[in-house]
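Support case: nicotinamide-adenine-dinucleotide complex. Customer-provided input:
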Amino acid sequence: MAIIIDGKATSAIIKEEVRVEAEQLKAEKGLTPGLAVIIVGENPASKVYVRNKHQSCIKAGMHSVVIEMPEDIAEETLLEEIAALNVDPTIHGILVQLPLPKHINEDKVLNAIVPEKDVDGFHPTNVGYMTIGTPTVLPCTPAGVIELLERYNIEISGKKCVVIGRSNIVGKPAALLLLAKNGTVTVCHSRTKDLAAVCREADILVVAIGKAKFVTADMVKPGAVVIDVGINRNEEGKLVGDVDFDAVEPIASAITPVPGGVGPMTIAMLMKNTLECAKATLK
Ligand code: NAD
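Agent response - structure generated as follows:
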């Protein structure tokens, strides 16, 4: 029986820590951390994510601004909005909800956010700092993975870590953060040969592919720690991860469920990043 790594409970603890610290910051320094979220268009999933971010901000005692823009907004108008938020002293974090409509250049938009307010950790400056190991704003989902491992006292140092997926928002940064914690890291992707054999080497297996129940029991070493980042909908419309939980759980030593694993950690880390960006303005 594996330990079930409870991301929902852990995220609630982190959010409460952030709320307490934000309250102190307000009382002692007169500073209220502020987050601005820009959403373009009517994507229903994006709307849910943005609403959750807004509500989490309010609960944490933070200032929250949601800027809704129509699907056909000109790229220039979006860039002007970001430029205004970049110099707004009440805003410490700016997040542009992805995906953006096809006519807008995503890289150009993300690069327009000043690195000091880049609470998603996607700006090349922050990616660079992360890569060389300088403390910086870390991308929320992979930072949430590390936070879960640490809060469950799972040693990373010296462990064989295998990450499946090499996206810029999950796989690559997860690999870099595990490396920074002294893991021995292998990154797998769609061209990896004999993926199952590579996965079976892992003491810690992090899965971020976006394919329901892709990781089966034969891909997991007995006693491994399995972190499932995937969020997929099965035929019945239920949320499922990239790992076949029922088959893998009996052989793993610890595993994250979906939902209730990595998912809730992303918003908790966003709150933490916003708080840290606000604190950094006092330095
Ligand atoms: P992506 O599509 O950008 O990247 C998928 C990666 O998986 C690619 O690098 C690809 O090489 C690899 N891959 C695909 N098929 C493979 C195969 N057969 N074998 C090996 N590797 C394969 O996806 P992403 O944005 O990194 O997201 C991955 C998953 O994580 C999705 O389910 C997404 O919904 C989820 N996600 C969750 C959160 C969260 O908050 N928990 C945040 C972001 C993404």
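The mean pLDDT is 97.

Case will auto-close in a few days if no follow-up is received.
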